[in-house]
Amino acid sequence: MQLRWKVKQADKEKVNALQQELKVHPVLCELLVQRGIETYEAAKKFFRPELNELHDPFLMKDMDKAVNRIAEAISRNEKILIYGDYDVDGTTAVSTVYLFFKEFYPNIEYYIPHRYTEGYGISFQGIDYAAENNFPLIIALDCGIKSNDKVDYANEKKIDFIICDHHNPGDDLPDGQAGIPKAVAVLDPKRNDCPYPYKELSGCGIGFKLIQAFAQQNGMDAETCYRYLDLVCVSIGADIVPITGENRILAHYGLKKVNENPLPGLKKLMEASGKQGQMDITNVVFILAPRINAAGRMDDAKHAVLLLVSADVDLSSADNAEQLNKFNTDRKDLDKNITIHALDMLLNDANLANRKSTVVFHPEWHKGVLGIVASRLTDTYYRPTIVLTQSDGKVTGSARSVKNFDLYEAVYECRDLLIQFGGHKYAAGLTMLPENVDAFRNRFDEVVSARITDEQLVPELEIDAEIELEDINPRFYGIIQQMAPYGPENMQPVFVTRGVKDSNWSKVVKEEHIKFSVKKNNSPVIDGIGFRLAEKFSLVKNGTFDIAYNINENVWNDRVSLQMMVKDIN
């Protein structure tokens, strides 16, 4: 697929001023200014994050109420139920809060709703479980900000709620502001009335702030919270939250713990995955997160929590890790087969293939992988995509969008054809009756066609800066590496070098990839690899071309060299 290149810009005066202070390559200053880092002090904090720079958790609205209610429960020896969603963010959040309190308070359990029998977020079944088992307090993590009806139901059963969420609130908070007794505390930095300085924490990050506040109020050492930073790091990577500000600090130290002293369950999961060597955020996202997620997709997310809260690296935790590994293997087979089936449907139906959107439906597809399949179809056709299946007499699906197109608003325009829906700009879930599928498909495409631009239907490659091949050296690379961990709003830099040519050693490998070997004028020869770029090999052999790439290390026979991970060529 042809990519649309967009080269970022940075304020030249700010770049020059920062370069005067830091005395490093001007392009490095350009990268920093693009990220809002414009002074020596800001650069120092960026490159050397410190745990003591974490914000006071009591700046979060209702934190005092939450901590006081938990202390009250402990003093009364009340049973506490830690409740969280079935995805990576939810299960790591539950594991973090459960492990912290379990250290000194035994009267505590966790509850994860079943994806297929209970659905997303707080469920009536979960509240019934709490009532039947005498839990007067539920701490909800990564969910609940829009669960007014569920909190009302819990109130009727004399159950208190503490809600810890990071999603956007609705018009009315479940906090009883109108005089109705609802949640005891609602922790969410995205509340309009919450003064907390950092708004982009993960759900597990909110859970971390809760235990941090409890530890602070009760004179506990900060290390009692920091021992769970590996779980917080996994949630940050998996939930694709910005790796800026407080998230950058948490991810930095969380990765350190992942690599040096991970919790037993995470250690076993890494061993089961076969990953060796240092983990980075990319490994977290593509190795750990899918295995944790697979439990809820294929069976029950409680399997994931059971592993994450394992106290010892024993036989049972090894078995649990292998079970998650098997779930992930099964999940990969499923999503691969469904993706092939869906692509085949599109290839053989001109009416579907020639639209501005994709809506595909098959009643026997597995519900747990629809979001993954939607993402794969979006990667192939690059347009707003919805994948649907059927269960219990209803059609449900997952939706994914392209850059700068508001998918949620497009689904909202079709709301009269839906039973329910929810989500945000780039991802959504929806449910409808089977007889509405065709009408929905047509309406959705009408809405998308009216709103999307031709430019939005071409994937964009953002390029951070232009450099020369001579700039690719260990010192330059070493400073770039200190910009990690990478993620949203701090992505690994993409560079462009213009007018390079083949050194006569470039070649196609395995029929679809290019092994690059390029030079420019009298520069050193730089090697690289470009996956799935073989169709552009004629550009390499027919003169000069522009090359867009990341820089990374290549290790071969104990020899370390720098290479280009090529994203595209023109």
Structure in a nutshell:
With 570 residues, the chain is an alpha/beta fold. 42% of the residues lie in helices and 19% in strands. It contains 21 helices and 19 strands.
What's the layout of helices and strands?
Elements: E1 4-7, H1 12-22, H2 26-34, H3 40-47, H4 63-75, E2 80-84, H5 88-102, E3 108-111, H6 124-132, E4 137-141, H7 148-156, E5 160-164, E6 185-187, H8 203-217, H9 223-226, H10 229-238, H11 245-260, H12 264-273, H13 281-298, H14 302-308, H15 315-347, H16 350-353, E7 358-361, H17 370-381, E8 385-391, E9 394-400, H18 407-412, E10 420-423, E11 427-432, H19 437-451, E12 460-463, E13 465-466, H20 474-481, E14 495-502, E15 507-509, E16 513-519, E17 526-530, H21 537-541, E18 545-556, E19 559-569
Parallel strand pairs: 1-12, 2-3, 2-4, 4-5, 5-6, 7-8, 13-14, 17-19
Antiparallel strand pairs: 8-9, 9-11, 10-11, 14-16, 14-18, 15-16, 16-17, 18-19
Helix pairs in contact: 1-2, 4-8, 5-8, 5-10, 5-14, 8-10, 10-11, 10-13, 12-15, 13-15, 14-15, 15-17
